[in-house]
Every structure is written in structure tokens, then in C-alpha cells.
Specification:
The structure is a homodimer. Chain A starts with a helix and ends with a strand. Chain A has a single domain, classed as Rossmann fold. Helices cover 32% and strands 35% of the residues of chain A. In chain A, strands 4-3-7-8-9 form a five-stranded parallel β-sheet, with helices on both faces.
Chain lengths: 173, 173
């Protein structure tokens, strides 16, 4: 989608040397590109057999929220450790150095739920994979993963068991 | 709004003893209450003389995103330190112990901008106040603050110079 390409800014050497960061703030700031993005993400969600939108903190919130609103679907949030106040499940995952974790409220997923997991970016897939594990721990199933941006060549798509869909792809060397 | 009250869960002693946490995850999970919330927030934004929605990380993203989508208005994000990749402005503010900071992209606000600042919760108003300072530093002006939940009695409303609107208020002792 050209309107997406035109509104994603490539920033070299962020957060560290050699990385090209794909900055979505221009996309958010342009109502036409934001609408085109949300509408395209919603089309992908409609084609998935799903009944809930799961958004990953925190840039996933920027897309999952408007999708849930447009589709009139329940919105479930997956957060960084210590943020959710109720009974929760936790999943750890590896980073380049060390580990991180995400959490979900136990009561946010039931055994009949089929969810789409939404985030802004697919890179190595660590967080998305952990998120899918959380959904399964909670008793639900994952219909698909939906991303705005996919960085190809980092193994993200291969890490994930369920279908992966993305609106725009960049080849990482 | 009764549908909001019914879908905000009071959790005692989170994040620490004596605090009643107002959990908005049931509100997100119920499409009717989420729609009612977003529609009511949008009505408040329409009544403000504004041309941009500014959402504060990260729960502000959950509301600002759907508002920007519905209103076809630009969405600007204010983030925790180190997250934004481009040229940015920074504002520090005091916490109970120590300080924190938020950042905004320099180019996200122009001198003709009048914004509404959106977040889920107004407590002491520290973050919202810092956010307004950031908008002014960037050259814009603040039309109003819009919150889903306001905790009265913590001085938040008094801390802020511009009009404050909220959908639901709780009296804190």
C-alpha cells in the first residue's frame, strides 16, 4: 500500500548502529494513512475466524484499539510485567541479552475464544510467540497474527505456528 | 454513564496497600462499553476547539487511537523516554519518589496546533501537566484534557491550567 510506504519513516541507527528503525508516527499523524491502515487490518481480521482482538503493549494498542472499535469486537490487552492488576498469566521470552515477560488477565480469554494478535511490527517474533503461548495457556486459540510492518529475514514468520499477515514488508539484510 | 461504571473493576490494594485501582480491562472487553466510551470521548473532543489528538503512553493509546480513527484527526503520541526514534523534546516531572520523563517528536506539533490530551486516568495530574508543557514547548496549545476516569481529591484537576473533562469520577479519601 503506497499510502503506508509514504508515511513510514526510515531512521538509520536507531535504537543502535546498523538498525533501520521503521517509524510509524507519520502514519498516525496522517488521518488518511491511519484510516487506510486500520481498514486494511480490519479486513484481515474479518477474514480470520476470530471473536477477539488481542493487542500487545504498547504500539499494538495504537492499532488494536481502533480495530476493536470499528469491528465492535472485544479488546484484550497483553502488558509488560506488573501492570495488570487482576489475576494473571505470565510468559517469559528471550531477548538478545536476557529475558523479558508479558502478562494477560486470566479472565480475559475463555476456552471458546479464537483471537487475532495485533502488533505494529514483526521482527524476530519473540513477543508475538510469547503472546500466542499466553492465549493458549488461558485456554483460547490463535487464529492469526496481524502486523502493520514485517521485517523479513529475521525469522519472525517462521517462529510463529499460526498464519501471519502484514501490510508492508521490508527486507532486512 | 452506567455502562462505564458497570465495566470498571475496583481492585483494592493495587499497586500497593490502601490504593483502589480502577481496572478498565472489562470496559475494553465489552464492545458496548468500549463504543460508549469512545463515542463520549469524541463528543468532548468535538466540543473542544482542537485539530489533533495527543495520546499518552500507554493506556492513553487505547482511547486516543480509536478517537483519532473515528474523528479522522491526526494522532500524536507522547512516550516514555528512549522510545521515540526522531528528534524530540523531553519533559521531566516528579513522582512520589524520584522523577520520570516523557517525550514527543519535535515535528509532531506545529505553532497552529490546538490539541486535546487524552489519557485513561487523572490522579495527581503529573503526567498530564508534563504533557501540556511538552505541547507548549513544541509551539502548540492545549485546548483541553480528556480522561476516562478521574480520581477526585488528589489535586489533578487543580494542577492543570486548561479545561479538564472526564467521563466518570471517583472520590478518593
Amino acid at each position: 500500500m503506497k499510502i503506508l510506504e509514504d508515511n513510514i519513516r526510515a531512521i538509520p541507527d536507531f535504537p543502535k548502529k546498523g538498525i533501520i528503525f521503521r517509524d510509524i508516527t507519520p502514519l498516525l499523524a496522517n488521518p488518511n494513512s491511519f484510516k487506510a491502515t486500520i481498514d486494511a487490518l480490519c479486513e484481515l481480521a474479518i477474514k480470520s475466524d476470530c471473536n477477539k482482538i488481542v493487542a500487545i503493549e504498547s504500539r499494538g494498542f495504537l492499532f488494536g484499539s481502533a480495530m476493536a472499535y470499528k469491528l465492535s469486537m472485544p479488546l484484550v490487552i497483553v502488558r509488560k510485567p506488573g501492570k495488570l492488576p487482576w489475576k494473571k498469566l505470565r510468559e517469559e521470552y528471550s531477548l538478545e541479552y536476557g529475558t523479558d515477560a508479558i502478562e494477560i488477565h486470566e479472565d480475559s480469554i475463555t476456552t471458546s475464544d479464537k483471537v487475532v494478535i495485533v502488533d505494529d511490527l514483526l521482527a524476530t517474533g519473540g513477543t508475538a510467540h510469547a503472546c500466542a503461548n499466553l492465549i493458549r495457556k488461558a485456554g483460547g486459540s490463535v487464529s492469526s497474527f496481524i502486523f502493520v510492518v514485517e521485517l523479513e529475514g529475521l525469522g519472525g514468520r517462521e517462529t510463529l505456528s499460526e498464519p501471519v499477515q502484514s501490510l508492508i514488508r521490508y527486507k532486512e539484510e
